[in-house]
Structures are given as structure tokens and as C-alpha cells.
Structure prediction request, 156 residues.
Amino acid sequence: TDGVVFDGTYQTYYCVFSGGTMGTTASKLYCQVAVSSVFQTSGYLAFENAGKYNGSASASTYDVTAASLISTGCVYSTDTDAAFVGQIQFGDPRVAAEKKSAIFQTMTPFDNASNLRTFVGAGAFQTAGAINGFRFIPSTGNFLTLRASLYGLTFA
Prediction:
């Protein structure tokens, strides 16, 4: 993280990621939060809208999950030239009286060699309390590559 640690020093955190590839086709990218250093595997509400365009036709879908703060189906190919990119914004992790929420967007340039897919969504951890970490995990399989940077912001 090169100087920014997810510890409540800042009021808002942005994580920007790129170069994401997974070993399993159609695996979803999940993000789970830690409470007292224990990653929570349930108790979330997450919703995503997805759009697809292949040069001549478009389509939209949605996805929901209770296993993650985000649920984004940005991996439709294990090819390294189809790496996904995205970002997630977390609310203040220090405020124990609030349920934790986040907004996210991701994109994969190609799947099946022809489709551009975009994803935008929001999620919440339904239990109020301070959080002290987060992790990205695939819904199935494993990451082959993923680069991420964390930024913290303080409001005046």
C-alpha cells in the first residue's frame, strides 16, 4: 500500500485495481471486510448492474449477493489480454455506529473475444461497527494477477 494503511486514519478510502485475471472463467470478484481482524463471509447486501456491448448489440443484467460487499462478474475469460480494471470507495471505517457501505465499478475489455462489459454497483455490511481491513477474493478459483493501490482522503 506504500504508506496508506486501511486503519481509520482517513475518512474515505479508494482502492483502484487493474491487470486482474483469474484462473476460472466466470468467477466473480468479491470484497469482504474485517471486523476485529476477522474477515466476514456473510451479512452483506450487494447489487450490481452490468452492461455488455459487442459492436452491434447490447444487453444489461444484474447480480446480487450476501457473501460480499461487492459482487462483480468481471471475469469471463482467463486470457491475460482480457484483464479487468476497477475501483471501490469505502466509507469511514472508524465510525462504529454506521453500517459500512461502498460503491464500485469494474470493466473487462473482452470476453469470448468480442464483448465489452461494464459493471457498477453498491454494497453494505449489515452490522454496524468499525472495520479494520478488506480483502479481494474470487467467488471460485484463484487470482492469476491483480495490481491494486489504496488511497486515503480526509475532508476539511
